[in-house]
Amino acid sequence: MTDIVAPLDEAGVEATIRAAIADQAPLAIRGSGTRSGLGRPAQAARTLTTERLSGITLLEPSELVVSAKAGTPVAEVEAALAEKGQRLAFEPFDHRALYGTEGEPTIGGLVAANASGPRRVIAGAARDALIGVRLTTGRGETIRSGGRVMKNVTGYDIVKLAAGSHGTIGVITEATFKTLPLTESETTLVLEGLDDDAGVAALCAAMGSPFEVTGAAHLPARDGAAARTCLRLENFESQLRYRSAALVKLLRHSGEVTTLDVEPSRALWRQVGEAATLLGDRSRAVWRVSVAPTRAPGIVTALGPLVAAHFYDWSGGLIWIAVEPSDDAGAGAIRPVVAEARGHATLIRASAAIRAAVDVFEPQAQTLARLTQAVTASFDPAGVLNPGRMHAPRS
Prior knowledge:
This protein is α+β, with helices and mostly antiparallel strands.
């Protein structure tokens, strides 16, 4: 078991990193550990956790902005925003159901994983709402990037680099997000019985309409239940009546449409946003494939019996695929098919041994790999932060 260090403040984070440099003892970086199965196993003897860096540091409803320290639970931030009639529009993704972990997802972990849910299809990802970070680099120096407003930058856009960096360029100590108002109500339109091609086509037709669809998922038939093609609408109640009717008319050739009221709609999108219950047995390896929506059904067809369970989010632009356990979690079959479709595949869940042996994230071309290494080294020249988390060391 690795030693765990839990600093109380940024000075403690800086001191921990400097000690790691001096001792040549790399650090694994984590929040509360709810996403511990995401990425390759870090090659480190110690763990630095940001759990104790907690608290909302700024909440300005009039400016639609919130800041919080890295260890602050996401639920705490969402509750504080809800009291002011606001929310994080990208619908933070919660990995606990996928990994069977406990604890509370933190703001730092959310940023490090760029953890975005079903509403990303219209609201953008976590990185699109992120407007400021405080980050302690692998030099043991804390830097601040961005602020309380969106603005152009020169040089490194550290805010965007931090999102999805998985702790490899620095330890996030604080993050600032742009927020949006809560909506008054929501409803979900459901078409039943469509196959994958027809379901994704219906999603794309709806997303191409002017009716502001905020969730678009196709859930294939499973365990005796019919396939469901789901389209979420949000806003004022009076608007929803008009937009629902217009969207039903648009989709009239796709089949009969049923409607979910507010609570069933929210329950459905929580299920989509957690993914696990739609993918079956937890022993299965899980992949996320990003691709042009129109190519998504073809990927699933090409993989054939390898696919144990799957569903589509983001209008088909994101495919969740579960495969039965194997020596490479299906990587040898999945990556060529995804590459042919010009997509990207990420191994989201597998054993530590498999994640250490295969590429978890999309393999990089040589030129891009050199660029990635150069950028990472500029922030972490001694290689003490989450070494090996994203890509295996290159000789």
